[in-house]
Amino acid sequence: MHKFLFFALPLLSFFSLTAQNEVSGKIVNAENGEPLPYATISYGNDRNVMTNIDGSFEITYKEDQIQLKITYVGFFSKNVEISDAITYVVVKMQPSVENLNPVFISSEENTANSIIKMAIAAREQNDPEQALEAFQHNTYTKFIIDNQSDAVNLETDTTNVEVETIINTARAYLSEKISKTAFQKKIGRTETILGLKTAGFEEPVYEMLSLEANPYSLYKKDYKLFQTDYAGPLADNALKNYNFKILDTTTTDHPAYVIYFEPKREKTVAGLEGILYLDVSSYAIQRAKAQLLGAIKLEVNHHYKYYDEAGIWFPERQTTTIRPSTGEKDIAVFGGVISVGTLQRSDNIVNRVLGSGEVRPDAVLSSSSTNYDVVFEAPKDLQRNPASIEVPPEAGEQPESFWKTNRQEPFTYRDKNAAQYVDSIVKANNVERRIEVKQALSNGNYPLGFWNFNIGAFYSSNGHEGWRLGLGGRTNDKLSDHFNLHGYGAYGLRDKKFKYNIGTQIYLDKSSGTNLNIDYTDDIREFGAFQYRKKVDLFSLFRPRFGNIASYFNHRTLSTGLEHRFNAYTTSELLVSNSRISMNESFEYSYLHNGQLYSEYDITEITFSVLWRPFSRFLHTPEENVLLERGFPRLTAQVSQAVEGIAGGDFTFTRAGIMVEHEISQLDQSRTEFIFEANYAFGDLPLTHVFHTSPNNVNEPKILNRFAVAGRTAFETMYFNEFFSDRQAMFHIRHQLRPFYITRSFKPELVMFSRFAIGDFEDMDNHPFAEFKTLKHGYSEAGVELNNILLGFGLSAAYRFGAYHLPDFRENFSFKFTFALPL
């Protein structure tokens, strides 16, 4: 007992000496009870805070009592006495005639709007990426997912290890990053990770680097935060998206206007609420604070530093916090929508880390970044680097001395304890396994031991095979990090035939994506399908158009290919293949060549395919190239040459194709997509190797008999095998309106689309047993979709018009359902 008192008394003394009082409250309009956001509360020795967007505030003080002075433009100031017995107070402010003596602008319009217009006009001289030819700096970033029940002020610390151990915080994620940013106008901005530490994980969670937790600039059109775009408060259309009000002027060496902004079209355009400190002389941002308040509370603080040598305010420090709140309003963040307690999207990085679709009710996310060693010139060796974020091999192996030198804020005892705690949590909750599974699922796989099962291989259906049941996948790095083995087996219940593939991929150089592929396939393939080897498609559990196809040919193909990534945005493959083609009962066909009919033949083909995505963002690690953000336009091109006489090849022909995809997304969540594709072929072309335009209409007379699933880029009113071409061009345009917000869970999307195709066929006489038409007069269709009506299902209607319009209305009309359930 004496020993306990010996240790307890000093501890109690410690707490009594450092005891603090706390008071919280709310500032409201006395006339209507509306909260007053960003009211200034002054107290003590020149200390002050600002209320949050809901008028709330919290103050910590050591005195027995303090006097609060509350000021707000357009209201009479008010003094309030606070004693240590008061823990909560509501202050009602009386409106007054607005009068701002230090500011005078000769304009009849809103004073704040005039200032914002000047700030927008001055962007080119204030935005570092527009005003400066070059700059470089280092950045220290600390990223934490904490536990609110144990959360304390992260900027405070204690030297008492025992007390800190008793507190024993319960964080779930902690990482540190040192990076070097280099910018040059003609090249752009690149980031190289110099050091990276992730507590509890054997391998760094590279995807966390793409979260955009600390936006670089407030001057841009879109303010990107946690994978969600918000309207920029200084964008060209800022006055359309925001209401502005001047709150105050500062009296520092560099005076600033304090401008309050709030969303004007909240249901249409995602916006933030906050304050801007705009320099009185240059209208540059000195400081900024932005908030969202609803199911969560999100707060971002920007601090800029003035550099005389460059004559510019440059970003110095940014902090971002997200914590639960009691509001009912949904908040857009992480590329989805957060309702109370739940993140309504499965494909997101935080969900991968936390391991479920729910955000813990006590979770607190905090990220801070500090720029230092700022130099206003570019490195001498700076070159265009298409990878937005570069992670060299040594980044994860930096010694402790490196971190001590480069940390821009203390790594506290709390942080050290947190690292140990996270390590135990990661192991106890098998977090790395959860990440592995979710990442695999997003690519259509399920990992089990050293094998990744291909989910799409389990079952599918089409008009020839009926139900197709199978099993397939590939080995992962648990078997070998030098190669993988892959394959599948499938059986059609209607055609009663077995199909299979077996192959290997040898990793020659992971950093450049150089791989050697060897495959053998015995399967079926659709007539006229031109498959781009490097085309990128998002995985979906259901591929709608393939369920309607009924005409196939058999092929047994041996292929060898070499993949290589020239840079982050350019990938390619060179493939050599030999195929034995034969017909089956689904489509009786023979090709007439030099007076001889071929129903079986060999094709030896050399194919080169390339994918170019210059506007996408990538993260380049020693092991892989990770796509962070899809950018548009993007281009896929492919050319192949069949050669007669080599490896038994029967024909010589050339095929080429190019596809350009572009997408324009708006802040109101509307989206317009454009796809242009052109194909050209010449030589000895059997019908198996010409082109179709992705028809998706079953050959049945009644509309309801053709009721099926609509494709995304298919011609819904074009019948299967109705048209073939050896040269063609297609154009698709889809415009999705912003979702209709009916209820929190019912948000249907209306899509309008139009498609056009034109083509021709030179040697139709060489296909005497196939009946089809050409597209030389141009084919047109248009329609609408109403998607996401229920559980991912929707409805589609399309109509065929123009040169190939058919006499019966029912023949031109398609009515189908849509389905979208991406992983």
From TrEMBL:
Pfam families linked: CarbopepD_reg_2, DUF5686
Domain of life: Bacteria
Keywords: Signal
Signal peptide residue numbers: 1-19
InterPro entries in alphabetical order: CarboxyPept-like_regulatory, DUF5686
Keyword hit for Signal: yes
UniProt-recorded name of the protein: DUF5686 family protein
Organism of origin: Autumnicola lenta
Keyword Signal: yes
Family annotation (SUPFAM superfamilies): Carboxypeptidase regulatory domain-like
Lineage: Bacteria, Pseudomonadati, Bacteroidota, Flavobacteriia, Flavobacteriales
